[in-house]
Structure formats: structure tokens, C-alpha cells
Amino acid sequence: MLVVEELPLSNKLGIYNKIKTLLTERDKLVEKKGVQKFRAKTPDFLLATSNHARPLTLEKADKRVFFYESPMRRQSSEYYRTLAEAMKTEAPAILYDLLQRDLSSFDPKSPPPMTAAKSRLLYDSMPETEKSLQELVGEGNAPFNRDIIHMDDLRFALGTSSTRNQRFDALKAIGALQTGQVRAEPGNPKSPKHRLWIIRDFDRWKNATEGRIVAHWRGI
């Protein structure tokens, strides 16, 4: 087991990827000055603590990290003196209690339980464009009250705070589906073609006709 008493703050995936590598690879090559290279066993378990609500950035599909936020707040000096003394004699009792835990239903291959703290951390780890899109869809103000939007709808809503690639990635991240090319005026060969995005009620729209898709998009 590897214990990290204060996890380095990071708003990028670098720290997370290093942790993931440590936990997935059985050993790593160690290089030190003046010492011949050697391979060392990686830890099976990493326990890290932090005083920050967002100590690291997670991947959206993370299945490795269990994140728990303790409700405990800073106590008086006397509390910690009493605790330190108690630990000298009560540690065996704590160990005994842990050894009596029923682990018969524990599956080491299943993802860790989702907690409210991890749910918040996953949300905070999202790119800003994706968070903004989720809020727009959730609030349901026009034109996001419709199931189908144009990329320009998102661009106008976000202003200059995002790039086209970021908007594209955000739409894919929420599971939006892109339609084939449709004409703004179905049946008119001179009408410009568009690719629209289905942002909800996918089963209803993925096989819908061009006319139905365009009519819904235009609010007709």
C-alpha cells in the first residue's frame, strides 16, 4: 500500500494518469542517479488524503477511484491530544473490528461505490464547455427546449468562450447524436444543407424523416 498524505492539486489529468499507471502496471522501471536501473513492484492500493474539495481531475468513465469526503472538521488541541493517547491503546481494538467485517459480498473486480463527493468531483472534472451544455439542456430554455439543435445554437449560447472542437466534444460527451445532412426546406434543392444534433429523446428521432427533424428544429 502507498500512502500519500497530501495529494498534489491538479486541474489536469496528469496526476490521475500517474495514479492509474501505478495501479494497473505490476512493476515499473526505476531510474536513479548513480544506481543501476531496476524494476520495482507497484502498490496494489493507494490511500491519499487532501484538504481540498477537488484534489485531482478524474476521467468521466473512472472505475478506480473511491472518493469520500469526511464530515469531520478541525477540533480543539485537547481533542487531538486525547486521540493520540487513545490510539496507543485502542489500535488493537480497531484492528479487531476491521477483521470482523463481513466481506463475503465484496467483489474486488467491481467498480468502487459512487459517493456524493465523487459525483461532484466528476462534474467539476468536466471541461467547461460540457458543463455549460449540460446546464443549457437541463434548464431547457429556447432553443434547448427542443430535442434537436444546430451547432450554431450552442455557439451563440456560449459566445466566444469555446472552440468548435470543444463544442463538438461536449455534444458527444452528453451522448448527442448527429443527423445526416438535411435541408432547411425539405424538397427544395436550393435550400442549404445542415447537420443537426439530437440532444434528447434519441429513440424518437434517430430514424425520423427529414421533414419531421427539420420541422421540430425550426419549431414548426
Give a verbal description of the structure.
This protein folds into two domains: 2-124, no CATH class; 127-217. It has eight helices and seven strands; from the N terminus they run βαβββαααβααββαα. It has helices at 14-24, 77-99, 116-125, 128-139, 151-158, 164-173, 202-205, 210-217, and strands spanning 2-4, 27-32, 35-41, 46-48, 148-150, 177-183, 193-198. The strands form three sheets. The chain has a three-stranded antiparallel sheet with strand order 5-7-6. Strand 2 and strand 3 form a beta hairpin. Helix 4 crosses helix 6. It is elongated, with a radius of gyration of 26 Å. The N and C termini lie far apart (62 Å).
Defining key terms:
220 residues; alpha+beta; three-stranded antiparallel beta sheet; two-stranded parallel ribbon; 8 helices; 16% strand; elongated
Report a brief summary of the structure.
With 220 residues, the chain is α+β, with helices and mostly antiparallel strands. The chain contains 8 helices and 7 strands.
Count of extended strands: 7
Number of helices: 8
Number of domains: 2
Which structural class do you get from the secondary structure elements? alpha+beta
Radius of gyration: 26 Å
Gap from first CA to last CA: 62 Å
List the uncertain runs. Answer: none
Share of residues in strands: 15-25%
- The run of helices and strands is EHEEEHHHEHHEEHH
Question: What form results from the Cα inertia axes?
Answer: elongated
Major sheet characteristics? 3 strands, antiparallel
Summarize model confidence as the mean pLDDT. Answer: 91
Strand order of the largest sheet: 5-7-6
